[in-house]
Amino acid sequence: MERRSFLRVGVVGAAAAAFGGASWSDAFAATAQPGPSPYGPLQAADANGIMLPSNFTSRVVARTGQRVTGTNYTWHAAPDGGACFADGAGWIYTSNSEVAITGGAGSIKFDANGNITGAYRTLSATNVNCAGGATPWNTWLSCEEVDRGYVYETDPWGVKAAVRRPAMGRFKHEACAADPDRKVIYLTEDVPDGAFYRFIPNTWGDLSAGRLEVMIGTNSQTSGPVTWKQVPDVDGSPATRSQVAGTKRFNGGEGCYYAAGICWFTTKGDGRVWAYDAANSTISLTYDDSLVTSGTPPLTGVDNVTRSSGGDLFVAEDGGNMEICIITPNAIVAPFLRINGQSSSEITGPAFSPNGKRLYFSSQRGTSGSSSGGITYEVTGPFRT
C-alpha cells in the first residue's frame, strides 16, 4: 500500500469509528467516497452544453469581449475567482480577471428576480488576479497569483477605490477566506512547496495592519494538531514560505472557504480537499482523489471551492472532465454539473446568490481555449438548504 493510501486509511478509520461520518462538525467528511448525488444523475447537455440534474437550468450571463446584456461594460478576459454580495433585494457577482498586467476584477448586478441591472469594472491594472475571498464587511479581496503578488481590497459596488493590502503578505496568492469567529483571514499559496497562512488584523474590518502567520506541521501530516508562527518579513524577500522553520508544505494551494468553524482549502498538486478545524487547530483530509477506493475518482483537478447554505461543498475542476462536484456532509462525492466541449478550459469562481437559489461560475477559456473565450454562467434550481 502506498504511503498516501496508508495515511488515508488511518484518517478514515479514526473518523468513522468516532463519528460515523455524520456531519462536517463531527468528522469533516474524512471518508468522502463516490456515491449517488442527492440531486440525482446528470441529464443530457442543455443548449449551453451543460449537463445538469433534473429540474436545474443554466443561462449565460456574460462572455469575454462582449458587453454584458443591457450594460456598457465589456466582460473581462479569463474570468476566475468570484463571490456574491447582497444588494438590497438583489445581489452582485464579482469576478477576477486572470491575465497579466491588465487583470483586475469586474461586477454584475442583479435585481431580486435575477435580471441584470448593471455591470462595471471594480479593479484595474493589476497582475494575474486569480481567486480571492469575500469579507464580512462586504468587500472582495482580489489576489495576484504572481511571485510577490499583492492582495487588493475592492468594492463590489465600484464606488470606493481599490486598496492594496501589503500587510497580508507578498507571495503567489491564490484564494482567501474570512473567519469572523476568530477575526482572521486564511490564505492559500499556489506553488508546489506552498504554505497555508492566516492574517490577523490589528482591528477586525481594517486590513491595513496586522500579523501574518504560517501553519506549522510536518509535511507528511494529513491529520491532527497544527500550530502557527509569525512571518518576520511579509514583503516576500526572502519568500514568506521560506522564513519560518517547520512550515507545513501544501502542494499547490487553490480554493479556500470558511463556514461553521471550518476552513476548507484545496491543493491541486495532490488532488486533496483539506479541512482546518479552527476551534481546535487541527487539520484533516476531506477528499483525496488518489485514495478513492472504488472506480474512477469523480473529482480531479481540484480548484475553487464554495459551500451551499445546506452544507454541501461545491468544488470546481481545473481540467478533469470540466465538472463541479459536490462533497456532502455525509461523505459522498459526486458530479453536480459538467460542461461539454470545453476541455481546454477550467471552471472558476463558483459562488451562490445570497438566497442560495442560484450558482454562478465561469469557464475561464470557454470553447476557444484562450483567455478571450471566457463564459460566465448561472445555474438555477432546487439547491438543498
Strands, helices and their partners?
Layout: H1 3-19, H2 24-27, E1 33-34, E2 50-51, E3 57-63, E4 79-87, E5 90-97, E6 105-110, E7 116-123, E8 129-134, E9 140-144, E10 151-154, E11 163-164, E12 173-179, E13 184-189, E14 196-203, E15 206-216, E16 224-225, E17 227-230, E18 253-259, E19 262-267, E20 272-277, E21 282-288, E22 302-307, E23 313-317, E24 323-327, E25 332-339, E26 347-352, E27 358-363, E28 375-380
Parallel strand pairs: 1-25
Antiparallel strand pairs: 2-25, 3-28, 4-5, 5-6, 6-7, 8-9, 9-10, 10-11, 12-13, 13-14, 14-15, 15-17, 16-21, 18-19, 19-20, 20-21, 22-23, 23-24, 24-25, 26-27, 27-28
Total domain modules: 1
CATH superfamily: TolB, C-terminal domain
Specify the number of helices: 2
State the end-to-end distance.
39 Å
* Named CATH architecture: 6 Propeller
**Portion of residues within helices:** under 10%
Largest sheet: 6 strands, mixed
Our estimate of the beta-strand percent is 35-45%
The rough form would be described as globular
Task: Supply Rg.
Answer: 19 Å
CATH-defined fold name: Neuraminidase
Question: Are there runs of 5+ residues with pLDDT below 50, and where?
Answer: 1-22, 24-30
- The average pLDDT is 92
Order of helices and strands: HHEEEEEEEEEEEEEEEEEEEEEEEEEEEE
The chain-level structural class is mainly beta
User: What CATH first level would be assigned?
Assistant: Mainly Beta
Number of strands: 28
